[in-house]
Structure formats: C-alpha cells, structure tokens
Description:
disordered N terminus, 8-stranded mixed sheet, two-stranded antiparallel sheet, 2 domains, globular, 12 strands, single chain
Amino acid sequence: MVKDYKGGIYSDNSPFREKTINEIIKTIQDDQFVSQCRTECGRKGFSRNRKLTFAHLIVLLVQGLTRSLQRELNSFYQKLQNEDFSIQYIVKSSFTKARAKLKHTAFVELNKVCLKPFYDEAPYRTWHGYRLLAVDGSTAMLPNSKDIQAEFGLTSFGPYADSPRSVARCSVLYDVLNLTVLDAQLDQYKVSERQLAYQHLPSVNAETDIILFDRGYPGVGFMHKLQQTNIKFIIRLRENWWLEARKMITEGIDDQEVTYATKNGKELKCRLVLVDLSNGQKAVVATNLFDKEKFPADIFQDLYHLRWNIEEGYKLFKTRANLEAFSGKTALSVRQDFFAKVFMMSLAAVLSFPIEERIRKEQSQTKHKNKQKINRTNALAFIKYNMIELILKQKIRKGLSALDKILSKTKEIVRPGRTNPRKKIKKKPPSSNYKHL
C-alpha cells in the first residue's frame, strides 16, 4: 500500500533536516522578510537594536506562552543568557508592543520554508506514487474581547442560545503519511468547512496529490470544482443525503459510475465505491479515480482509513499544542498563536521523520508482535523547549542528535483495533486570567 522508505537507515543528522533549520534561521535574519512581516502600525518596527529582537519574538511565539506572560519572558531570557536565576530582562508591555508590529503571515511563510527542503530532498512517504492529503475542519474558543468580537463575531451557545462566545473555525490541509501541515485557514465560525477547503486548493499539486474528505464536504458544485482543476479526490458521501449511496448500501453494489448535473447545467461524472468501516458499517465514497486496473475497488477501504491521521493530528494540535491557550486578547494575537503552532507541528514532523522511518525499517527486518511508532508528543515537546538552542544558539547537529536519542528511546506500541468512545462534551478553554505557574 504505502511506499516504504528506500534510503537505508539514516545517520543521526539527515542533510535535509540541517538545511531546514538553516533555511529557517536565514529567513528570520533576512531584512526583506522582516520588512514584509511588519504590520501597518509597525512600519519601522524591528529596525533598531532592541532587547526583544525579531528573532526572539518569533521563537517566543512558536514556543507558546501558556503561563503568565512575565514569567514566560523571564524564563526565556534566563535560558537564552545562561543565567542561574530568572530575573526580569524586559517587561511584558514591551512584548505586547512588539507583537502588534508582527503580521501573522510570518508563520505562514516559515511553514513553507520548513516544508520546501523536506519535499525537495527527503524520501517522504507516498501512496502508489501519490502524496496523500486530507482536509478537515474544527473550531476554537477564543478569548473574550471587543477586538476579537469585531474580527470573529459572536456565536450563541447554551440550551437557550443565551451564552454568546467568539468562536473561530479552522481548517488544515494535512499530509496523512508524513504528518505535515501544508496549509491552514482560520476564519469566523459562520464560514463553512467547505468554503475554507476552497482556500486550500492553491496548495495542492494536481499531478501528484490525492485529497481525502469526510462526510461534511460532498457537494456537486465542490466536486465539479475539483474535477475542473484536475485534482484527484476521494469524498465520503452521507447515506441519508445521496440516493445512489443509500441504494448501493442496501443492494450491496460495490462499484459504479454515476453522472450528476450541476446548478449551471454542466455534468459531473463520479465513481462510487462501497467500503467497509472499522466499526462494521458500510459507507460509500465518491472519487474521480476512474482507472479500475490502477485503482481497484478493494483498495479504497484502506485508503480512506488513512484519513484518520488528520484526526490524530487535530488531537495533537488541540490538546498537546494547546491550540485554545491563546496568549493575547486581540485578533492579531489569535492568528499569530494559531499559525505559530501550525509551524511548530510541521517542524516537529519534519525533524522526527528519519527516526520514524528507521523504526519502520527495523520492524520490517524483525518479528515483533505489534508495530511501534515514535511518541509524537515528545517530538512536539522537544521543539517547544529547544527552539532557543536550535534557532537562536544554532546548536543544530547537537540538537538533532538529542532529538533522535529521545525518540528512539520512547517508542510506543501500535495496538490495532483499539477504540475509545468519543466524548462530545466541550471542554472549557484555558483561563486567560489564571494561568499556570
């Protein structure tokens, strides 16, 4: 199914990883990049020799600020300056003024810089020669402030819809085999997941990519748009919405081609395939992969199951990276935190990729009862707590060697068939007034 790693066992420092970190450092230090990342109110920002530099601000935001702001700043400069004790070096108002001068697009660009050496040089994983992507959306509860309400609006919650909150809808384009985020979008709650999915399409390579979608995305107009742009797709249909899907399930039809009419009178030709889900139920997926010799019907079950990795990615994003633990009460700070964590997720995936592949290679040569994988929480934690050493102190090889040792010694067993009931109770976001020490 999935193409295995074909480059032997990696050394401790793979060339593309060093290049990735060096390119990130080079970009952060580039005056033109700094100039492009200034907001309108910060047109002269980061041009003087300040204590809080542009690079310091980037690293601080990527690390995440989950404790009180002043304690985070004190700890940051204690580690940066190799001091024994945490003593105030800059005040939190200086940080607040500095971040107001920084566009959130800085982290969007850094994510692209991070991924380019990986997809240009690394032996990344593919499925039948295709990069396998997935799109999915989620929501994030935002801090309560007038600026955030003006940007993201208010949505009523509660049994009587009498509890207004600002909520954002987010969407990511995710590589489900390599666990990187190719594109991310953040908008108001009233914007649908399908609308955000349209914005991911420029990041898709029609020649080499296949996109997986769940039941929230199918629509004749949307699939026609994908067809027009030659993007390969697999979308699960809702059985109670699509007559053909319901008929295939009840009559046991495995594979058929159908034609739908769009609102503007054009035709959409689709292939519908019946698949078995892990819970024993059946589902129907629509696709434009018409070649039955290259894509027989029996491969779609395992193929669609690979979409689950985006669900695991969201779990890591929202619980381990603390997506909703925003460090400010402005719309700009919300966007900065969101895209900084997207960048951190991609960087963790890229730097841990060789160890994951080495474990997979070793397993193919030994007889273990269960497969193993790296602990991705440890990979994310390493990036969070070692950005100073990697980016500011530039201890690249030493840092990569340490990461490899940590991940090699903290492998997790993959237990097939293990499931847990999904809890649909919405947890309250972390308090912005009473933060951890």
